Amino acid sequence: MQNEGLSELEVWIDQDLCTGDGICVQYAPEVFELDIDGLAYVKSADDELLQDKGATTPVPLPLLNDVRDSAKECPGDCIHVRRVSDGVEVYGPDAE
Ligand code: SF4
């Protein structure tokens, strides 16, 4: 993956596969949060929980490593990080 740090990225969670263990929240609490239903959701830049299916939020550059590690460690394989420009997944189960 070249120039990934220069591309704008966004992240979404497939709640159907989320185990609710909260690993993502430990890595990047600014981006992920567990709701009262026990599943993880992404948050908007102004801290609002985004509960629509497939909702995405931008990945702040300073948090890129934390979000990437979340996707790698996620036991449900359900954190998807993709480029905004072309929708190609760069981290997560559908990444090349
Ligand atoms: S790490 Fe994955 S499975 Fe665990 S709470 Fe976060 S999204 Fe759900």
UniProtKB/TrEMBL annotation:
Record PROSITE patterns: 4FE4S_FER_2
InterPro entries: 3Fe4S_ferredoxin, 4Fe4S_Fe-S-bd, ET_Ferredoxin
GO molecular function, one term: electron transfer activity
Superkingdom field: Bacteria
Cofactor names: [4Fe-4S] cluster
Domain 4Fe-4S ferredoxin-type: from-to ranges: 9-37
Keywords: 4Fe-4S, Electron transport, Iron, Iron-sulfur, Metal-binding, Transport
Stored SUPFAM superfamilies: 4Fe-4S ferredoxins
General function of this protein: Ferredoxins are iron-sulfur proteins that transfer electrons in a wide variety of metabolic reactions.
UniProt name for this protein: Ferredoxin
Taxonomic source organism: Streptomyces morookaense
Lineage: Bacteria, Bacillati, Actinomycetota, Actinomycetes, Kitasatosporales
